[in-house]
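Batch manifest line 456
LIGAND: heme C
JOB: complex structure
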Amino acid sequence: MPSSQVLVVLFLVVGGTALAQDAAPTPVAGEAALGSQPYDQFEPDSFCAECHVDIAAQHAQSMMSQSYTHAWDEIEYFELALPHSQKEPKVAGVREGCNGCHAPLAFLAGDIPPPRPSEGSRANEGVSCDLCHSIVGFEGEVPFNFNYIVDPSDVEQGVRGGTDNMGHDVQANPFLHTSEFCGTCHNEKDPWGLWVKATHLEWQESPQAKAGIICQDCHMPPAAGNSAPDMGGEDRADIRQHLFHGAHDAAKLAGSVEVRLHARQVEVKPGSEVVMVATVVNAKAGHMIPTGSAEERVVWLHVEAEDAKGGRHHLRVDRKGFEGESYTIASTEALAYHDIGDIQEIEAFPGLSRDGDVPDGDRIFRLPYLDPQGRMTVAQWNTAAFGPDYRLAPLQARNETFTWQLPKDVPVGAVEVTATVWYSKLVSSVAEFLGVPPEESEAVMVSQHSTVFTVK
Ligand code: HEC
Ligand code: HEC
Ligand code: HEC
Ligand code: HEC
Ligand code: HEC
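JOB STATUS: finished
ARTIFACT:
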């Protein structure tokens, strides 16, 4: 029995009055909201889609409408988090907790664990229209761990308010036009008290935040149109587009990290040394790259040269010497993710390749998540410490050098050197091991630049 029901029963028995039965449920937030709102308090997206045609089609393509049904989410919850919650008391709360953000209707209904996606329950609706448009605020000082307050009713929370429309009433609620609204799910604190997802906290520190640019400005940009054409909507100059595109959209990733490359020496002799300098900059995001599910993402810089006769040479990044740097340089030897073996009870599990398909010696921009034994993990709920944060901060550049001792027999002529930034949503070794669909781990090109020096 969910604790809220226990409380109601206690109240009835101890207080000896039936008053509580008539009172409308007071909205509660976070873990306390478990089981507080039956499914039928929320309209399905198909209802809203009758009038809000374009917004509904946009949202249906976004990851938030697939936050429960998407294959990798199903695998991670049912094959790692749920079994782990049953054997390790420290992480027992994730059985419910994952759903507070990924299957909020199931969480609020107390339908835990939710039925598998194939069963077609209302858990599948994920972060739905009526869920977001029933959020009235959040509890406490910092938005995190689904501490949004939902008050579902026939009134939709909006930002304009006072609209004379035929669909439903609207409550003007400035909260929807804040980054804190998004932060209720885009910040996550794990059982060790670590910020294992901190997109909103990162944004707070960003130049964009200081300039008043919020999440909605980049992920829901305004366009002229009508949000409910033929159904009483008005033509407006600034309808918020429900794109919510992120790392799952190659076009959103394209150019989000820029790279420029130059050689310090423009004319060199065979056998001498040439230093290539790559400047990378997070030019487009109002938070770290990678952000959010940083435990899974691999963003790396690959530098390759082609000599005058077409011979190819892979250049390894120079070490800078900071603590924990080895986590940021790809190694085909390094192993990690041993906790998958612990959770799945695999005898003598050796771990999986830490960096998957990333070529040896490439620079990786990452934040290593470390399990209680100090091994790298993709289980953000099992994270007891972090390695060095070597991600790319908004509107900041970083230089990486590649010192290359030219072979004595390198052909004279032009050498073209190319730097490429790649992005993989999930480290390929984990994807292969767990049978996650290949598009989740494919390498997506973010940006590329080439330069030339001459061997004389
Ligand atoms: C019968 C048609 C209809 C249905 C169904 C409908 N809406 Fe609306 N809605 C409208 C109209 C018309 C407007 C006014 C648009 C305008 O102001 O131009 C509107 C406005 C809104 C606004 C903007 C409010 C503001 O002032 O900022 C929100 C948010 C909204 N609807 C959400 C929803 C959600 C969520 C659902 C499903 C639970 C839904 N609507 C279902 C017709 C409908
Ligand atoms: C992740 C939360 C979220 C989801 C899911 C969501 N919305 Fe919204 N919606 C918002 C926010 C936030 C705004 C206001 C953005 C702003 O003005 O900064 C908004 C604005 C709107 C507006 C007003 C648009 C305008 O500019 O006049 C309508 C209408 C609307 N939503 C309908 C829907 C419908 C229909 C769905 C489902 C198909 C939906 N929303 C799904 C968060 C959400
Ligand atoms: C109720 C919780 C909740 C709220 C509120 C919420 N999100 Fe999300 N969001 C999620 C979840 C869960 C996912 C992950 C979906 C998945 O499984 O891939 C997600 C995914 C996303 C993605 C896609 C990331 C990718 O990998 O492509 C973007 C972009 C995003 N959200 C932006 C926003 C913005 C902007 C807001 C505020 C207007 C917001 N979200 C509010 C829960 C939420
Ligand atoms: C200045 C524009 C800008 C702002 C402001 C911004 N974002 Fe982003 N966001 C981006 C870009 C560009 C990307 C694609 C690069 C990437 O995936 O890291 C992105 C990616 C994302 C992703 C996908 C990351 C991943 O690893 O899957 C999420 C989730 C997200 N943003 C949420 C938010 C939230 C929540 C806020 C507000 C707290 C916000 N963004 C503010 C531009 C912005
Ligand atoms: C506080 C809200 C929250 C909680 C709790 C939460 N998640 Fe998430 N999850 C998100 C958001 C937001 C994203 C998208 C982040 C991004 O793309 O940057 C996400 C992304 C993911 C992804 C990656 C999706 C992808 O396609 O790359 C998986 C898998 C996932 N979560 C599983 C889980 C599991 C399992 C749990 C419980 C142990 C959990 N999540 C708990 C909010 C949450």
